[in-house]
Amino acid sequence: MIAPALTLAWTPFIDPIDANAFWYLLIIPMAIGIALAFKAVRVGEMRKYPRHVAMMTAQIILGVVVLAIASFIVIDKLVPILTPMPAP
User: Fold this and answer.
1) For residues 62 and 11, which has the higher predicted lDDT (pLDDT)?
2) Are the C-beta atoms of residues 61 and 28 closer than 8 Å to each other?
3) CA 78/CA 83 separation, integer angstroms
4) What is the DSSP string of 10-50?
5) Rounded to two decimals, what is the model's pTM?
6) Which residues form the domain of 68?
7) Is residue 70 part of a domain?
8) Number of domain units in the chain
9) What is residue 55's DSSP assignment?
10) Residue 36 falls within a domain, yes or no?
């Protein structure tokens, strides 16, 4: 077996990128890609395409941020109130 450090080619599923420090920023290219593909099919006039892609990208990112905040509030604040743990 060849050690991973000795191979010249990068294999994405075997040696993934170490994105632990900035994983949350990967939502930006994903949102842009989704908006590009969706709006390429849906927009009637290509003059409006860049503006529609930018608006949908912002909507996706804002939606994910709102869902993250709502999940934090529910899990971190509401669940402990609704299901109190018995004292040890």
Assistant:
1) 62
2) yes
3) 9
4) --TTTS----TTTGGGGHHHHHHHHHHHHHHHH-S-GGGHH
5) 0.74
6) 27-79
7) yes
8) 1
9) H
10) yes
Beta-carbon contacts of residue 61 (< 8 Å; ≥ 6 apart): 27, 28, 31
- Residue 4's nearest CA partner among 17, 15, 12, 18 is 15
Place of tokens 């949908």: 56
Torsion of CA 30, 31, 36, 40, to 10 degrees: 120
Q: How far apart are CA 34 and CA 39, in angstroms?
A: 8
Whether residue 72 lies inside any domain: the answer is yes
Q: For the chain, how many residues are written?
A: 88
Residue 12 lies in a domain: no
**pLDDT tens-digit series, residues 10-53:** 788 887 778 888 888 999 999 999 999 999 999 999 999 999 99
d(CA 48, CA 22): 32
Find how far residue 54's CA is from the centre of its chain: 16
